[in-house]
Amino acid sequence: MRLLERMRKEWFMVGIVLAIAGAKLEPSVGVNGGPLKPEITVSYIAVATIFFNSGLSLKTEFADSRLHASPCVFCSDFNQGSWWE
């Protein structure tokens, strides 16, 4: 039972080891033009997933303050830009 508990605790490392082992056994899955389409998956989907996950980890107080600040900065920039006209 201790092995199962350890695997549950270290689930991320177990997943990495399984992914590496799968890539070693069947490398044709991840080749360009293969079923995973890494030219699309890595460049768009992986980057979007990384930014989405990092956005989810923000504290709500920080996100609320940033949402409040961006319209203020936009308005002040817009107002200063129209002074020259």
Low-confidence stretches: none
How would you classify the helix and strand content by structural class?
mainly alpha
Separation of the first and last Cα atoms: 75 Å
How would you sum up the major sheet? none
- Order of helices and strands, N to C? HHHH
Radius of gyration, rounded? 23 Å
What does the overall shape look like?
A: flat
Overall average pLDDT: 79
Secondary structure: number of strands: 0
Share in β-strands: under 5%
Q: What is the helical fraction, as a range of percent?
A: over 70%
* Secondary structure tally, helices: 4
Give your account of this protein's structure:
The protein has 85 residues and is an all-alpha fold. It has helices at residues 2-9, 11-25, 38-56, 60-81. It is built from 4 helices and no strands.
Question: What descriptors fit this protein?
Answer:
85 residues; mainly alpha; 4 helices
Quick description:
The chain has 85 residues and is an all-alpha fold. The protein contains four helices and no strands. The mean pLDDT is 79.
What is the element layout, followed by pairings?
Blueprint: H1 2-9, H2 11-25, H3 38-56, H4 60-81
Organism: Equus przewalskii (Przewalski's horse)
Pfam family, one: SBF_like
Family: Belongs to the bile acid:sodium symporter (BASS) (TC 2.A.28) family.
